[in-house]
Amino acid sequence: MTKLSFTNKLLIAGAGATFVFAASPSQAVVINPTNFTGWQSVGNVSLSDQGASLSSTVGVSDTDIETFLGLDAGALDSINFEDATNGSAIKNTFTVESGDVLTFDWRFQTSDYLPYNDFSFYSIGSSVSKLADVQQVGDYGNTTSQTSYTFTTAGTYTVGFGVVNSRDTAVNSNLNVGVVPDGVVPEPITILGSLTAGAFGVVLRRKQKQQQQATSKV
Question: 10 Å Cβ neighbour count for 35?
């Protein structure tokens, strides 16, 4: 991801309504740094001010997840090349500008084993991308990471996260979002005061216009 010399930073979470980012060029905004309690969900999900935890077991069908997130029918099968069966998902809606960057910490853990290739994913509008699966982490394995997505077109988007069983509907896999995973060091956030250590979740960085950047320089 291209490093931006001047950015507005907005930690995204909270109510399920559309957020319109209207921070002034000279001041960034920090809102609800880890609070996912207002996000919409389907399946077996726990939402709190500490992040989101999604489980694949006791979830809803893959068709229900695709409908919930606004994905095409069969989208989950297509990114895993196997039969997605059931799972859980969350979503929220955001209005962004071209160049805005969405960044999130996540952890995928599985109690399953191959050939049952359970997987986790995120979606932006009608596009869906895999985060991790059993094949990647190994039987009963786990992984932690941070992912970024740059919006190339301004507009209103549904952002979703999910975890799904593959081939069967048993043995749990889990996706955590918005809690700092082990081994991942978040970018320091000092705007509008100091945040509690570990208070890091989903971040939107807004690239300022070149004219605004020039005006801000000393």
Answer: 21
Q: How far apart are CA 176 and CA 53, in angstroms?
A: 5
Q: How far, in Å, are 71, 94, 144, 161, 175 from residue 112 at the CA level?
A: 26, 34, 17, 20, 13
End-to-end C-alpha distance for the chain, whole angstroms: 26
Residue 1 in tokens: 């991801």
Can you spell out the DSSP letters for the chain?
A: -PPPSSEEEEEE-S-SSPEE----TT------SS--TTSEEESEEEEETTEEEEESTT-EEHHHHHHHHTPPTTHHHHHHTS-EEEEEEEEEEEEE-TT-EEEEEEEEEES--TT---EEEEEETTEEEEEEEHHHH-TT-EEEEEEEEE--S-EEEEEEEEEEEESSS-S-EEEEESSPPTT--PPP--TTSPPPTT---EEEEEEPPHHHHHHH--
Quote the CA–CA distance of 111 and 91 in Å, as a whole number: 25
* Greatest Cα pair distance in the chain: 60
The pTM (predicted TM-score) of the whole model is: 0.74
Which residues, in sequence order, are CB contacts of 78 under 8 Å at separation 6+? none
Residue 137 region by backbone torsions, left for phi larger than 0, else alpha for psi between -120 and 50, else beta: alpha
pLDDT band at 34 (very low <50, low <70, confident <90, very high): low
In tens, the pLDDT along 111-123 reads 999 999 999 999 9
